[in-house]
User: What shape does this take?
Amino acid sequence: MKRRAAICVLPFLLTACAGEQSVLDPAGRDAQVLSDLFWVMLAGAVVLWLFVNGLIFYVTRIAPRPLGRRAAEALIIGGGVVFPTIVLGALLIYALSEMPNQRASGEGLEVRVMAHQYWWRVEYWPDGASEPVISANEIRLPTGQRSEITLNAERVIHSFWIPALGGKTDLIPGRQTRMSLEPVRAGQFRGQCAEFCGESHAYMAFGAVTMPPEEFAAWLEAEAAPAKPPEGNEATRGAALFLSEGCGACHAVRGTAASGAVGPDLTHLASRRTLAAGILPMEKAALRDWVSDPARFKPGVEMPGFDHLTDAELEALASYLMGLT
Amino acid sequence: MTEETPFRHRSIWHMVLAPVVWSLHFASVYAITAIDCAKTGTLDTAQLAIAALTLIALVLIAVITWRSWRQWDYLGDYTYVHDKPTVKHRREFLGHAGFLLGVVSVIGVIFVAMPALFIGSCQ
Amino acid sequence: MTDTFSDAPRNAPRDDDSGKVLDETLQGVYPPSEEMLNRPVDPALRARNEQQLRAAWKTPTGWRYWSAVNNSEVGRWYSLTAFFFMLCAGVLALLMRIQLAVPDNDFLSADRFNQFFTMHGSAMMFLFAVPMFEAISILILPAFLGARDMPFPRLSAYGYWSFLIGGCFVLGSILFNASPSSGWFMYPPLATEQEGVGPDIWLLGLSFIEIASIAAAVELIVGTIKCRPPGMRINLMPLYAWYVLVVGAMILFAFPPLIAGDYLFELQRSLDWPFFDPDRGGDPMLWQHLFWIFGHPEVYIVFLPSIAVAAMVIPTAAQRPIVGYEWIVLSAVGVGFLSFGLWVHHMFTTGLPSISLGFFSAASEAVVIPTGVQIFAFIATLMAGRVKMSQPVLWIAGALAIFTAGGLTGVMVAVAPFDWQVHDTYFIVAHLHYTLFGGMVFPIIGGIYYFYPFITKKKMSDRLSKWAFWLTFSGFNICFLPMHLTGLRGMPRRVASYPEAAGWDWLNMISTVGSFIIAAGILVFAWDLLRPKSRQPLTERNPWNAGTLEWSHDVPAEAWGSRSVPYVTSRYPLWEEPKLQERLDDGRFYIPDAPEGKRETIVSSAVDAVPQAAVPITGPTWCTLWAAGFTGGAFILPVFQMYWAAVVSGVFAIACVIYWLWTATAQVPKKPMRDAGLGLKLPTYVSGPNAPGWWGVFITMLGDSTAFASLVFGVFFFWTARPDFPPADAPLPDAVLAALSGLGFALAWGATVAARRFNRHGRAGLARGFIGAAVALACGAGAALALTVLVPGLEPASHAFPAVMCALAVWTGAHTVLGALMLLYCLAGSWFGKLTPRYDADLRNTTLYWHFLCLSGVITALLLGAFPRLLA
Assistant: This one.
């Protein structure tokens, strides 16, 4: 009976743990270590909880013969001092010795992340580069190597976290913080801001993609290239609108006159998995709705709404942007 | 009279001496590390200082705990329940509690010093 | 030295270890002999004494009821108000749970949601958890100690009214959609830059309440140290009193850093002094340090008192004395210390060096040891006795089940690398609710079931208790157990909404269902607590057959509390001294009467509880309400930029306090000695270290110095954290003026000490002269301090360096003004005969204040005059 229950529970547990943003579905070395650490600690915790509460239940309900005073004191010394000192000492040694590995310096690639309310500027600095490849709201990392991540924030404190790859680190204005991540398997994940950063804190996420080193190199080369010119009439109209509506004052589309640095870089917008820092799917309809009224999806966002544009104009703008792969 | 009561333990302050040493050790270890990392970016001075401070703290706590043990006088009468309204019980009670606090403080100091063994950089 | 020498009845009690006579003024026999205690009291005398006491302790009736200051009244208001605030904060939680029940919900706007979670946390912490401890302690501590009231009843009343005003102000803001919305931790720059009055409401409203909390803590500590019944040596104190001592001390060292932080924060918000602005040399991390130096001990400040309640319930449940009393004392004191070494574990992800995190990880694990000792001591007691299941024990058992789970997840999150994953996720939400429900809510409710017959002389319902328990317990686990998984699956805290694709929907739905089951349980409990019980019979006197003194009170209740103040010789007097109850009722113990119609309390020595005096304590008054109202004005008006009105309100508040002190404290007694009963005559006036008032000042100043130390920490923090501290071209405070002000503080202190000496020796005229000189020197020192920053033209809004220098000067300057006021109060007292060579409590307290002020004045002078030059 018990075994059958266990068999039923196991697959449930496995699916319950899986997910693009799950600590228990690791795809990075650090996350793997921490996930293992968690399972070990959980097992210990369950045993201890059962022991202590079993004891309480036993003494309050099953009403045994009163225990001698000496034995009671022994219980306090054993359970309260000796046992926890040994167990916690061991846990500390295990966990502390792991810390330097988790924070080891990266090799090769450095990714600089700047958090804004409520989006992420991402700069890729490959080894020896003199100029970064600029992107936004998506992090791509090569597998099998440890990449350095440098963190900074514009106005308020945020926290950078990709649960599947490793722990989080805060981004603090006026301070530079750092971390490093070592993905071990390729895949698509979701990261999110973990430090409360204002009205739309809930709407500040990002996509994370890990890929084999060769694929990553190819992607980075493509990302460094200027934007594709618009294809087709609608997109061309959209490109013109983009400039005439002043979008370029805040957004950059490399290879065009748009070179703003206030908002996210849109050069390869459509190659990203998500829109508006991980909250909308990268689809034309979503893009149109977003441009028309961003505050509907992200209250407190700095981007103004463009609801004065006609449907056709919005459609054209969206076509243009969706062509920026 | 002075021979029989080598230590004046009227006050409860004696009881908390060991954890006070723990807090001083903790605060100075933290401060030295923070300053060393902020000003030099390495832990060279800090690690030496942590070792020295830990040693000093352990010696101090050992002395305090030993005095508390004497004050408890367990081997004198084997009492560990001090619930009588007498000076003796009050004195031994404070010694007993001080001794236990000493033990916890030793564990605390050793725990706190441990990271210095495993972590050698300011990262 | 033999024990019989010091424990047998004798004249003039001695300091036991040195043989020095403790108090020459005490006359008569102490401790009392068995024969004296057996001597019956004449019934007519007994009736007369009871009548006197009843008159002295009469609770005001009609609308005057609200002028009462008695601990039984104030404690009741206090706890009901805290309970009401808890219900409000709970409603906020339910609304948030509705919002999160389904993905992409728009039941609440993001801004509302942010206001709600900010207020839920702030209210639960500041308006429920800490005040509840103080409320319950005010209500029951005097009874544990066989005392009639707290040592400073008007201070409790003042604290209560402040709490009520501040609490309504802070919580009321939610109705106007004007609440703070940057989280209960108020991290700058988000909170410093937030528009509107929200952050100011939080800072000023809660500072106001924190000060009231500190006042209550001071009173509780003094009550425990100085107002124990004769004979209750420190090894016989009820465990609750030990916890009060530890928690009071923790409040004293934990709240001031937050007050210092609030001070800097509000200076930045209203005057734009850039302490937390990185563009102008500030650092947002300073706030995090100050906040969490408060915030983590706070968790234990919430947890320990509830464990203290359990420590009272468990021996009664087991019908035997607690096992491992010394171990529990160790654990309370140990937790008190270690909890101050944990604060950075709230900052594990801020990028501090790993090794620093390691220290805090280690200390966070170390604190598990005393906590575990506590729990095993309880289990050992239950094992050594025979447990009778009753309402309170059920709640305590539930508390242990929940708390151990929270403690075990605590061990996990204390491991820094693991915390990097779960920090600020729902895993933490689950963990903290497990510790707080298990460590606070359940034991408190258990305690209410246990103490309800003591407070109201009625019992709560067994049936409703079971319903309330099982609903709350199951609801709690349904709500919070899944949250561990929600967090591990990546859901961050404080998100107003989440996408469907994240896969957190069913987990959140379960949690929401659970939260409503908890609410149902709490409602049943609230109904049981508040339902009218006038038709229910009174309980017997000691319904649980407990062993401690509170159960000796009369049924029906008498306002005097303890009929006479007993001589205690054991930890569980009602179990171990069978004749005690009869002797108590008969009035055979101390101060069984009120010959002058005054409320009185016994003052005893700190360690061995040798009686030292029987002093009058304050009675009903309206001035505490007025004082609280005006103090509230001084804190609340600045929120709306009404600075002058605030100043006026502050002046009125000070006037009220002076009136209250002048008319009711340290009065010259009619008779210097009082026949306290059992052949003992006690002085009716104490001053210096024997006096509760002196301890009150001493303890308050320890807290105040901690706040000052936090500011000093700020200076050193900037020095380590910022390369441009001080900036290369900035003007430095004037060194000569700083030296002058330091000298001025030292001289003013010297004059104050001299005044006290001369006054003691009967040279009142000379003493007045020195007091006058001290006032003049204090003014001079304050002026020099002001000029130290004004003459070189420091511009506090330009950079954190001049800002922190000016903040120090303002802080010490304000304390100087207070010091001068206290001296003037003594001068007036000397003039009008309130302060005489023999009755000099005011002057001794002022001198004590000046010891502290002199120290902080000199440190301020050094930090302003010398420190920047050393760095530059």
User: Anything to note?
Assistant: DSSP finds 28 helices and six strands in chain C. Confidence is low (pLDDT under 50) at residues 1-10, 12-24 of chain C. Chain C touches chain B through 49 residues (CB under 8 Å). The radius of gyration of chain C is 28 Å.
